[in-house]
Amino acid sequence: MIKHIGLTLALCVMVMGVGCDGVETVSKESAAPEVASGVVITIEDFSFSPETVTVSPGEVVTVVNSDIAGHSVTSDSVGAFDTNIISSGNTVTFTAPQEVGDHGYHCTPHPNMKGIIVVK
Ligand SMILES: [Cu+2]
């Protein structure tokens, strides 16, 4: 199940260059896996690096999964943002919330993995 979702996501990113609306990918405009100069969160050794990032409202955040396992960046507040499972070695983007403040997030399969998106 989890592997299947990851594969589907990977295929969508590679083939279509856009997010999969069906699996609730937040970014709808530019999900191309290009590591821009913007904010990048790297996942390694079952943790987010850096754990706290500061962004502008609606800024695109790139997530690079350099770990051996699949992980997600999922807002603690349900529905704010969710990358779904990012397979090992994959890169995705999502759009930060418009709402100013601290937005905690976690990894769905590993709830002990936590981070904060600070929007200001
Ligand atoms: Cu994880």
By secondary-structure content and strand pairing, the structural class works out as: mainly beta
Helix count, DSSP H or I runs of 4 or more residues: 1
Mind telling me which CATH architecture this is?
Sandwich
| E-strand count | 8
- Give the count of structural domains: 1
Name given to the CATH homologous superfamily? Cupredoxins -  blue copper proteins
Largest sheet: 4 strands, mixed
Radius of gyration: 13 Å
CATH top-level class: Mainly Beta
Give helix % range: 10-25%
Q: Between the first and last Cα atoms, what is the distance in angstroms?
A: 36 Å
Average pLDDT, rounded to a whole number, is 82
CATH topology grouping: Immunoglobulin-like
Order of adjacent strands in the largest pleated sheet: 2-1-4-6
- Please state the overall shape, judged from the principal axes of the Cα atoms: globular
Write down the secondary-structure element order: HEEEEEEEE
Descriptive labels:
binds copper (II) ion, four-stranded mixed beta sheet, mainly beta, single chain
Strand and helix layout:
Blueprint: H1 2-15, E1 39-44, E2 47-49, E3 52-55, E4 60-65, E5 74-75, E6 91-95, E7 101-106, E8 114-119
Parallel strand pairs: 1-4, 3-8
Antiparallel strand pairs: 1-2, 4-6, 5-7, 7-8
The structure holds copper (II) ion.
Summarize the structure.
With 120 residues, this protein is mainly beta.
